[in-house]
Amino acid sequence: MNLAQKKILIFSYYWPPAGGSGVQRWMYFAKYLKQLGYEPVIITVDETKASYPVTDSSLIKETNEIRVIKTSTREPLRWYSILISGDTKKGIPQGEVKTSNLFEKLLAFIRGNYFIPDARKGWIPFAVKEAKKILKAERIEKLITTGPPHSTHLVGLKLKKQFDLYWWADFRDPWTDIFYNTSFFRSAKTISKDQALEKEVLQKADGVITTLAGKFHEQLKDKAPKQNFSVIPNGYDSDLMKNIKVKAKKGDFHIVYTGLLTQNQDYEMLLKVIDKYSKTLKIHFSLAGNIHIDIIKKINDVLPNAIVEYLGYITHYNAIALMKSADLLLNFVFKGAEHQMISGKLLEYIATEVPILSIGNPKSEAGLFLNKGSHSWMVEKDNKSKMELILKTLFDKKVKNKFPKLSQWSRLSLTKKLSKIIFSEQ
Fold this sequence. Notes:
Blueprint: H1 3-6, E1 7-11, H2 21-35, E2 39-45, E3 67-71, H3 76-85, H4 102-114, H5 124-138, E4 142-147, H6 152-162, E5 166-171, H7 188-204, E6 207-210, H8 214-223, E7 229-231, H9 238-243, E8 253-258, H10 268-278, E9 283-288, H11 293-302, E10 307-310, H12 316-324, E11 328-332, H13 344-352, E12 356-359, H14 365-370, E13 376-379, H15 384-396, H16 411-423
Parallel strand pairs: 1-2, 1-4, 2-3, 4-5, 5-6, 6-7, 8-9, 8-11, 9-10, 11-12, 12-13
Helix pairs in contact: 2-16, 5-6, 6-7, 10-15
């Protein structure tokens, strides 16, 4: 295999210094593809022009050896964010769409009906222009587009029509079926147009990669019955997990939550259970991530006897260290997304060997996955007795959450699987 055959052009809107879970999947794939002898070439957005809700400069060191090309873009989300919050970043929606008043409803309607498939589609012409130069000069045959934002796949669609390419569309999350689309007040015309774009991508790509199968695959296969679907989940970086030291323990029992927390997740009942035990046991509850101050206030109000510490958004490195310091890790599945995704955070949770309590549907893909662990549970939102039993068990005895064949979920193992899909003989 010559150098040109080892090259792969990857389009990812999210790239360091972007923070959050969306950036990590292809950042790590690129890192380990490089280690395995392949040549990933990344086309992404200039961070000074992008709409990133959060940034994490510590991730840049993971991609020092990767060739990255940054382009300009047009970003209406920045103006949307300013109108919502007065800041270019704070008002960018994550996991929920605010519609509590008429102004927010109007902005949601505009975003949902005038920016199809999403408000980052302004990147498409810039990415296509840059890609054409590279494809003509270097004869690259392999192409990856990853979404969200799913407008990225339209770059692949345009290039596929002009060049002889093998193109894989990576669906980290659903497209038209994503749970928060119902909050955008979309018209029938908008929905139809968006579905047509999704269907064209699914049918024209040479392959589609997703993070999970199950009902999500069934939905996609209905739209593209002849398509070749592959599953490569999110994972954990074994080097990072091994090298990060455990922080000093806090209190008698340390509970940790990391990531996004919104009103679209069920956390109220579990807070009441924690409150019950905090009256007799010293509990330290640490939260880190992009969490609205109103939710933090509510948690403080419900847990007057616990020590509640909100750390804000922290680097990925510090988030792993925080996870490893816990006696219990919490997760809350987004309402309506039970069969659509498994959070990449859950894989890192599992790699720490700390017990996990997640609130959601036990029969969902994430629920079935957690059930494999020795001390990880998915519990229905109103199953108070089960929550109490789990917490009492963990209070009485310190345990590790052992997961069978954990190494298969490492970023390196998953990248080897990816390389077989992409670089096998066509």
